[in-house]
Amino acid sequence: MTASTVNLTLLRRSAAQRFPGREPQVDQLLRYLGQPADTSPPFLFIYGHESTGKTSIVRFILSEIFDSTHAAYISCVECYTPRLVFEHILKQLGDSHPSFETGFLSNVKCDSMQEFISFMRRLDGAHQLPRYIVFDNAEKLRDMGPTFLPAFLRIAELTDIPTTIILISCVPWDKFRPRNGIQEPLLVRFPIYGKEDTMKILALKCPSDEPLDFYLSFISVVYDVFSRNCKDINELRHLVALLFPKFCEPLFDGRAKRSEVPKLFRLCQTYFAAAADKLYLREISSAEWLRHIRVRRPGDDSDDNSSDPEDSGTSILGNPIESDALHLRIKTKLDFDLPYYTKFLLIASFLASYNPARLDVRFFSKGKESTSYSKRGKQAIQKQMMSNTGGKHRQQLLGPKSFPIERMLAIFYSILVDPIENSIEIQSQIASLVTLRLLVRTSNASQLDGIKCKCNVSYELIRHISHSVQFEIENYLFDFI
Amino acid sequence: MLTSELIYCQPVLNPSLTDVTGTNVNIISKVLSLVEKTVIQSESNSALIVGQRGSGKSAIVKQALQMVSEQNHPFKVIHLNGLIHTDDRSSLREIALQLDSGSSGRASLRTFAETLLHLLAVLQGGDRTGTPLIFILDEFDLFTQHPKQTLLYTLFDLVQSQPQPMAVFGITPRLDAVELLEKRVKSRFSHRQISVYPPAQFKSYLQVARNALEVGIHDSRNRKIASTPYRTDFNAVVSQLFEHSDFVRLLRRQFDFFRDISSLHRILIPMVAALDADSPYLRLDIFQASVADQLVDMKIETIQDISLLELCLIIAMKQYLDQGIIKFNFEMVYDEYKTLMGRSGSVSGSGMKLYKKAVALKAFEHLLALELIRPLESGGNLENDPHLRASSSIMSTAGGGSRLASSNILKEFTMVQLLLEPSHIEEAVLKYPDCPPLVAHWGTNAL
C-alpha cells in the first residue's frame, strides 16, 4: 500500500466547481472509488441521458485520483473491435507511448481474451494496486461477441488483480443482460439537469463583454421555451449560441435598450419560433451561423432595417428572416435537379408506389374526362377504402410498395403533357434513377423481365419536383392527407 | 489508523473472498473428498458442480482446493474458462502453458496437432505415481459448444482410461448441462453432479450478511489482528443494525427476490463505501437509500428524462398498442401524434406545439438509440401479421422483394416495435415531472 493518498475533500470541492449540479453523483463515485489503494466494487454501471456529464466526471475523478497506469479509458466508438479494445487498454495500463524508435507502432499485439489476460498478468501492476477500466458508450460492447462482456466482468477473478469495470451508457442495464446470466452492477444514475443547474452551466459560457444578469435573463427564457422538448444541454447551448446574437441585434441598431428585456424578446420571437422548428436538426453549425451573421451585419443595416420589425414577424417567407441561416439549409436539401422527363419518371413511379393499381383507370385514363363521374366514383371508392383500412394503414403511412416497370411507364405516358416515343433514353433514365437510389429495385438483379421497383423518395421532395414541372401531384394521389 | 482498520471489513468488496458459510457444509466436504481421492489416493474422477449464479460454486471449489493444498501433497490445478477459451485450440494452448509453467520451452508449439500430440504424450506417459492433475472448467456449458466437443471427449477419456490421476470439475449454472454432451462424451462422464444452492434459510442468509460486515479477527491472509476499541465499537454497531427491524425487513425483501450472495453484497457495498473518517460506523439511512437506488426500474427512469415530444411519440405508439397494432413506422406514429395534437383543439393554448416532421424524426431516432423501440429486421414480413392483413392486399405485390427491402427502405417507413408495456407507459407518464395535464390524460386514457 505504497500509493499516495488523495485529499478527497479538496477533490470534491473542485469537482463541484467544475460540474455544477452533480454533487450527489460525484459523491457517490468518490465513495465507491476512494483512495488509490482502496478496494472498489468490481462493477459499476453509470447511466443517464446524453450530456449529463457522465464521461467528463468519471474521467476527471479517475485522472485526479489515479496514475494513468491504473485507469484505462476506452471509448467503444473509437475501439470498435475486441482487438482495438485489448490493445488500447494494454497501452494505457502499460504506459507505452508510440515513439520514433518503435516506428510509431504499438508494441502489443493482442487478438484474443486469452492473450489479453496473460498480458494483464504480466503487466507490472505496481504492487498489485487495483485497476480501473472504463468503457464509454458501452452499448457497443454487445456487438463484440457474446462472451466479451461477461469475460471482462470476471477479469479480476481471472487475473488475480483487483479490477473495477466501469460502464458508461445511455442505454439501461436491462438491455445488456445476456441470456446465460451475468454479474449485476452497482448503478449510478445521472439524471438530467434541472433549471437551476442548467442555468449555471450555460452561464459558464457567458460572453466576456456582456453583463451576466442580462445574459442570465436571456438564458432563463431560452430554457423556459425549449426545455420541455430539448433536455440536451449541448443542444440548448447551441440554441443559445444561435439566438443570442439575434437577441442583441436591436441593441446595436438602437431599437431597444438593455433594460427593455421584454421588448427584446418580442423582437426576437420569430427567431425563437424558427429555431423550434429546426430543433436538433443542426442543418447548420453554430460556427457557420456566426460567420453568416458576421457577413450580414455590416451590409444589412441599409435595407433590412428600414422595414418595420413587426412586419418581419408576421410573415416568415419573403422577409429578411428568409435569408437567415436557419432557413439556409432546407433549400439546398431540395435543391437537386433532374432532366425534365426524368422528373416525370420519378413522379410516375411515386404514383405507382402509393396508389392502388386498380384505381389507375380512374386517375389516368385520358378519354373520358367527365369530371362528375370520376369524382363520384372516386368518392365511392374512397369511402369503401376508408372503411376497409381505418385510415391508419393507408399507403402514405406504410411506405412505398413495389410496382412493375410497365405500370409505371403507362402512368408516365399518361401524365406527360406532350406525348413522346418510347425510346432507349427512357430505359436508361430508369437505370440512372436506380443508381441514384431514387428508385429501388425490388426484383432479383438477374431477372431481366418483369422488373419491379419501389420509389424511394419522400412526399415533400416529390411535391417540390412536381411543382417544378407544373404538375399537380396532389390531384392524382389516393388517400393522402 | 482508520483506513487500516477498514481494510479488514472488505469481504463485501472483494468477490474472491466469498463467504461459504451460508451454503451447506456437506457440499464442501463432497468436493473435498473428491479432490482428496485424486490427490491422495490417485483415483481419477469427474464431476459437475451445478448451481445458479452467485451461489458460491467457485468459492466452494477454491475452498476445497485450498484445504487440500494445506495437506502438503503435490498436485497441479489447471483452470479453464469457457468465456475465454472459446475454442479447443485456445484451450489446448492454455493447458500446455499451465502445465509447462516451469519450463517455458514447450510453449512455443505452434500448430493444433503438435500441441495435441505433445499434450497427449505428456498425459498418457504418466502412471499412478505422477503428479495428480485437477482440471477446473468454469462455464462448462460453453465448452460443449466447441465443435465435436473434442476437448471434453479427450479429457473424460483420459480420466477413464489412463493411470495418471486426474480429476475434471465442470462448473456451470445450467441444470441441463449434461444433456448438452454428445453421446460418446456423455458415456465417459461419471455423471456425478453436485448441486449448490444459495442459503435456503433466512437465518443463514443473515449470518452471511453479518460475516460480510463485521470486522473479523483474521485478515485476508489469515493472520490474527489485534483487537482495538474501534473494532469493538464497529461490531457493536453491526449488531445493532441486525436488531433493527427496518434493516432486517429490507434484507428479507432482498432474500425473497434473490438469494444469491453477490446480490446481497451488491446492496451492502454502498453502506460500506460510505465509511470515512467523519462517519466511521455503518449507517442505516445510507443502506435504505442505496437499496432504493439499486432496485429501480431503469426503463421508467429513462422515460423520466426524455423530452416531452418523445413522450408524446411514445403515447402515440401506445394508442396503436391499444388498438392491437404492434408494429408501426415513423409515418404512422407521426400521423397519430398529429391526430392527438389536433384533438386537443387548443394546441397553442396549452403551450404545446406541433413539431415538424423532421424534428419529430430526430426524437424518434433518439428513442431508437435509447432502445425503447426496436426496428424489426425486415419491413416485408407485414403479411404474417394479422393486424396488418387488412392492408396486405395492397402490399401483396411487395412480397417478392421483402428481403431486399429492409436495407433499401426510407427510414421513415422502417417498422418498429415498442419495447414497453402499456402499463409501464402509464406509470411513467404519471411520474413524468411537470407533465402537462393534457399529455397525462392521453397517456393514461385509451381515449
Description:
The complex is a heterodimer of chains A (481) and B (447). Chain A is an alpha/beta fold. Chain A folds into 3 domains: 8-190, Rossmann fold (3-Layer(aba) Sandwich); 196-334, no CATH class; 340-476, no CATH class. Chain A has 21 helices and 8 strands. In chain A, the strands form 2 sheets. Chain A has a 5-stranded parallel β-sheet, sandwiched between helices. In chain A, strands 6-8-7 form a 3-stranded antiparallel β-sheet. Chain A is extended. The termini of chain A are far apart. In chain A, 34% of the residues are buried. Residues 297-332 and 369-373 of chain A have low confidence and may be disordered. Chain B is of the alpha/beta class. Chain B folds into 3 domains: 2-11 and 200-295, no CATH class; 23-196, Rossmann fold (3-Layer(aba) Sandwich); 301-376 and 415-444, Arc Repressor Mutant, subunit A, CATH 1.10.10. Helices cover 51% and strands 8% of the residues of chain B. Chain B has 21 helices and 7 strands. Chain B has helices spanning 2-6, 25-41, 57-69, 88-99, 112-125, 140-143, 150-161, 183-186, 202-213, 229-243, 245-257, 261-273, 284-294, 298-304, 308-322, 330-343, 357-369, 389-395, 402-408, 422-431, 437-444, and strands spanning 45-51, 76-81, 133-138, 166-172, 193-196, 373-375, 416-418. In chain B, the strands form 2 sheets. Chain B has a 5-stranded parallel β-sheet, with helices on both faces. Chain B is flat, with a radius of gyration of 30 Å. Chain B starts with a helix and ends with a helix. Chains A and B meet through helix 2, helix 5, helix 7, strand 5 and helix 18 of A and helix 4, helix 12, helix 14, helix 15 and helix 16 of B. Chain A: Residues 301-311 have a biased composition (Acidic residues). Chain A: Residues 298-318 are annotated as: Disordered. Chain A: Belongs to the ORC5 family.
